[in-house]
């Protein structure tokens, strides 16, 4: 069987690191490049985080590109510290070194996206794990990009009017509403979305997480290290009583989108419907709307509903058996 | 036990008629007045519909007041024909007669609201079943009204980002977003909301509906008549396979709000949280946002979640045993 | 010649006081009532200010009505202190007394507007000198009011994209953008607007102001008193070098609108065009747009351009020769 | 004296053609490149138009780059036909040929902008004559571009709340409000703006226009040809009685911006103030707001007020004495 060609666009925080490792561990996937975007932390930290993940997994030959440092229109929201200020739990050393700059490609992420997709028309799966700024800029520089993609997987948006950054809006979409709007309106390739509520409603147990990071591999030790401080609560007695909306548990957000791309059978139910991102309003801005009324003639996408947790768990477990 | 004092504000369609009958049938409730608002149909039809319901139930001594004919700001949405163009299924005769004008009170609904509430400070339960225009105008003319109310029950809004008039917005709120916004921001009395999703998720069966309207009373015959044409599908084989989001069934929308006011034990679970209505945006406008993040310092209300369907069914059944 | 019937709606600050005196001094005008609105100061101060002006002019038989205390939608802007916190220069005594409450009519300003206009259909000139909240509420309670008016004079809005409260929006309109929008869309009677730029471009000299308040009458002494503190700069050497946009001078804002109503020949040039108030946006909100492109099919009004300053000066001078 | 280095970003219509010729005729200017943007017509037509102008002036060695084909966010406005559907008066032949594609640079306009400016830090004057999409994309791909520019000249925006595409908004800004917003917020280099009202208030006579295009040169003949059809009215008796707002006359819009860049003394008065573009609202969207109140802490720019028409006329006359 031929390999899937994948490009990952990421704002590399802890869950992105996990998601990238899942892709790296997939034997049927060839990663053409990883493009970086601001989001969980600033884009310079994101570049360093991706390089670090590749280094841990001994896959440094994969090119990494620096992309957007801010959202498309208006002032950029402050970064949230869910994964520490550096995005990987604030425990890694050598942040001050500039050697990473020699390891980043000279080409801008947006230009690399356009080039790599154009070199493999109809073959590339694009997986977007952060704000969608690089994708929006790419379609502005080359409007033919969406039709050259094989498909698009997105972690972002919401589907029950519930959000995490704002009452009705999810972090990735809310960090750049205009780019989210543009991507959903103009990337008319087959599109699969792992919303925030989807990931929360398909959570894993903290007991599984314990097992996951207890493996005796470089990747598992790395994951244990970067979660040691900012997810300290996950080692505490109360860890199973946190979230009021969805209950408590281990939710490796971005990993669902990568898993769905690697093996479509991980997603056991999706709903196909028109979607649009609201860009106006104090509360609506950044919210993804699902249209079941037929009011919108907008892009029909696949919104994930349920996940085969057994299969997904296996993939996660295998992903940390590297290198 | 002393009687509850109730004012009903309504855009009287079929479900409002059912809801009003439920209140009329409650021995512990005294209805001080019914105020009319545009919504399911124009306000003149609404006035006639309310008078007709009172006539059927032989309760014509209850004063009926004409109120807002349009939304607060901007052009009013066209009326939807869910309940026919006249709001009561387009089957009633005598629409051309002007005798109803002699039966309507001279006082404007907004002034009557202010007067009736002020005459019974702390005692009146206000039940709002249509667009909230009359309530918004009342608080502008007399800002002390909310604090003089005992409590407020609203059928309207949404709680899962799903709507019926628009992808994310429910009919009553969407017909006048600014008034919905004003009422939720300024009516700081205890407030209970029956959202669209709540009513849909607590539906009854069409078999119950058959039984309900088969009773040998004037009220049941009236309900059978007004549902005969516009709910014709409910007498067809496919009636149990309609709605994709919530399944199919009989949902007497406004009746949940009245029932909750008449007997609080009908509602078995509510969630208390801050809410706000979005008034901007193509998709957000008219949507009610629930804040579980603590971002909004807005009014905390009780959003209904589950209903004791046995008790509610009994109340509905009794409501048509009139007069 | 028969008398003009006039209702004045005001947020009585110093310029409103001057404008009311101009109306009181006009022998061909009968003032049916004065309705009060928040604006330059809170509505209770406005009521007291109007009563004080009528008292100074010995015209206390004119009924005064209390109206809107806040804008139609959303939080009310803080009052600006251009005319002091009490609206009349913070120099008057007896603010703590409650006797004014006995002098205010019991009827709400909005109801009085509806009643007075309905009692004299086609005869009443309405002059609006503050935020347009009372007018907006009146048309919501009785949509027939605009067609029963003879005409409408407004001080408010802007016509060159320049504002005083905001970069593009004038105080009266900006204090309640939704009400301004409603009034311009729905008051389809002949409408004459004295914008902020119009008043500034038709300014009088500070020397004229000196002469005006130096007259030996109760009214002139009152005007001298209330301008003594907050317009202290007008007695200083630099008084002729203040404003960068329009030069310096004495601009009795609201008095232009009353003068235009009393004697139409005071306005020597107007432009008739469609107008609309923008209600959205950080910068556009509250701005009045003039349409010379034919894009808007909205209300065509008369926007004042030039004023016969000789005639206007005489009217002002005469207005302080009371009682 | 050393040459000024200039990049022209254009949506080449008739006035852009005139403006480019003015730059070409300036002996002290070296044009590093011309970047193309949609606007007066689609970006393919714009490319062809620029190449045609360079050909007429025998300056085909100047590189031309294709840029944005649509606005940054949302659907692009239909092109207006003020200069014909092809932007140059619908009179030129050979539109169907594809040879122009071989003459356009391979590099995208946005990348060329970044490269050319970075190669000459602090030395390049950028003159923007169309929608500002290319400039907005450039600063997103390389946030350091604005500080590397010498200065920026823009034809666009409005300063009296009057527009041509919309009642309050000028064509170039209104065709891409978000890009206009971004450029004015983030291009913090010295910025000079020729607004629509500025150009209209500094119009030339149609008699001058007659003289201008009557010159016996290739450039003048070209200008005569492309204006022959769509400006046919300018050869008619009524040509001096067209515009209600600003009177009638010959207004070579974009040429003012180029002239100001070539020779700063052409502009005899400017006002320095904070500006911001409104991006929301039916009427405000695309409007440039000038802040004389100190409310905005935004970018202070030089808004042109008056022009030395004698000097400007001479430059225009000389610009058509090519080649």
Automatic annotation (TrEMBL), chains A, B, C, D:
A Pfam family annotated for this UniProt entry: IU_nuc_hydro
Keyword Hydrolase set for record: yes
Assigned keywords, A-Z: Hydrolase
GO molecular function: hydrolase activity, hydrolyzing N-glycosyl compounds
Residue span(s) of domain Inosine/uridine-preferring nucleoside hydrolase: 6-312
UniProt xrefs under SUPFAM superfamilies: Nucleoside hydrolase
Xref: InterPro entries: Inosine/uridine_hydrolase_dom, IUN_hydrolase, Ribo_hydro-like
Family that this chain belongs to: Belongs to the IUNH family.
Protein name: Inosine-uridine preferring nucleoside hydrolase isoform X1
Species this chain originates from: Ictalurus punctatus
């Amino acid at each position: 069987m031929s390999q899937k060609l994948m490009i990952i666009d990421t704002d590399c925080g802890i869950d992105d690191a996990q998601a990238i490792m899942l892709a790296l561990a997939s034997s049927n996937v060839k990663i053409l490049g990883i493009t970086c975007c601001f989001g969980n932390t600033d884009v310079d930290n994101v570049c360093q985080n991706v390089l670090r993940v590749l280094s841990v997994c001994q896959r440094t030959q994969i090119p990494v590109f620096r992309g957007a440092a801010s959202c498309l229109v208006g002032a950029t929201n402050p970064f949230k510290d869910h994964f520490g200020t550096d995005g990987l739990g604030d425990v890694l050393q050598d942040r001050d070194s500039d050697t990473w700059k020699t390891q980043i490609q000279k080409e801008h992420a947006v230009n690399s996206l356009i080039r790599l997709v154009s070199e493999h028309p109809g073959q590339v799966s694009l997986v977007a794990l952060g704000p969608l700024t690089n994708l929006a800029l790419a379609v502005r520089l080359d409007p033919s990009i969406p039709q050259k993609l094989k498909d698009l997987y997105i972690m972002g948006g919401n589907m029950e009017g519930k959000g995490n950054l704002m009452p009705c809006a999810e972090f990735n979409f809310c960090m750049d509403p205009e780019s989210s709007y543009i991507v959903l309106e103009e990337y008319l390739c087959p599109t699969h979305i792992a919303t925030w509520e989807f990931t929360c409603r398909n959570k894993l147990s903290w007991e599984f997480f314990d097992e996951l990071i207890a493996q005796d591999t470089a990747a598992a030790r790395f994951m244990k290290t970067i979660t040691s401080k900012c997810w300290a609560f996950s080692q505490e007695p109360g860890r199973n009583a946190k979230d009021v909306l969805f209950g408590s548990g281990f939710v490796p957000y971005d990993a669902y989108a990568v898993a769905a791309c690697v093996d479509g059978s991980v997603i056991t139910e999706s709903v196909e419907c028109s979607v649009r991102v609201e860009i106006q309003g104090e509360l609506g801005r950044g919210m993804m709307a699902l249209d079941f009324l037929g009011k919108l003639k907008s892009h029909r996408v696949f919104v994930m509903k349920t996940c085969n947790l057994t299969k997904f768990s296996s993939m996660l477990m295998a992903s940390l058996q590297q290198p």
